[in-house]
Amino acid sequence: MTQLTFLVLDFCVFAVVAFAVLVASRRVETAMSVRRRLQADQSAPRRSTLTSPLMKKELTNSVLQWVQSTTLQDPEARSKLRRDLALAGWDSAAAPPLYVLGRFVLAIGLPSLFVVSQMLSAKPIKGFMFLVIAAGLAVVGLIAPRGILDNRANARKTEIEHEFPDALDLLVVCVESGLGLEGAIVRVAGETHESHPRISREFDMVSLELQAGRTRAEALRNMSERTQVEMIASFVALLIQTDALGGSIATTLRTYSAEMRQHRMLKAEEKAMRLPVLLTIPLVLFILPVIMMAVMLPPVIDGIRTFLPTMNGITR
Asked: The pTM is what?
């Protein structure tokens, strides 16, 4: 009886000590987590509105100023080039003259490098072929930057299309939790800064424009014009219409988020349905000829072995 009592007392002491250690470890872990978050927030660079892309900077480089004044004299062409560069993610004031300068350097540099390489070569290319290659390199130098720009713009639009539904879901959560639309946009821009940098930057621009005094409709329309994405244009039009009619922003966002999720599912199903059609091309070009050869080759070999001696006997 005495041993049983000691065993029960030992078990109770062990349980109390284990519980105390568990509670203390949880407290220490929580305190360390909070300290790490505070240190991360203090060490993270803070974005100031003074250095934001909303504040348009003028060119300070004299060379770029000269290139812009000599090659981009038409205001309409300059604005179109600046808009195309902004769609590709290059919205700096130095982007248009750098683009023009890059095209000029490539158009002159590629043929020059080819000429120098042929001068140093033991068997250089001469005659008409030399002129054709040099002219072709000059044309490539003029066309390649435009192709890179268009490719970059399309890639950025695709990336924004992939990032926007997640940001929209987070925006719905923020609005339904009690935040206003402006506060929700600021919150989404801060939370998606690392995982979705492109849509975070667009929401950050919207919040900066709202702080600068623009109306909500103007800031949202500017985001739609900057991205040129269809789903963002529909989202902006829906928000502006809801705000004008006095409807519920939370209900509108929730409905549009559900439709967006359904749209993504339909798009994924469409890609899955296209997969068998796309697999038909390599099947016909590469796999089917091999199968036909594997099936037809043994009969052909047997026929050759059967009829070749007979043909040799006839010829003799």
From this structure: 0.65
What is the tens place of the pLDDT at every residue in 56-79?
556 677 887 887 888 877 888 888
Q: Report the alpha-carbon distance of residue 271 to residue 274 in Å, rounded.
A: 5
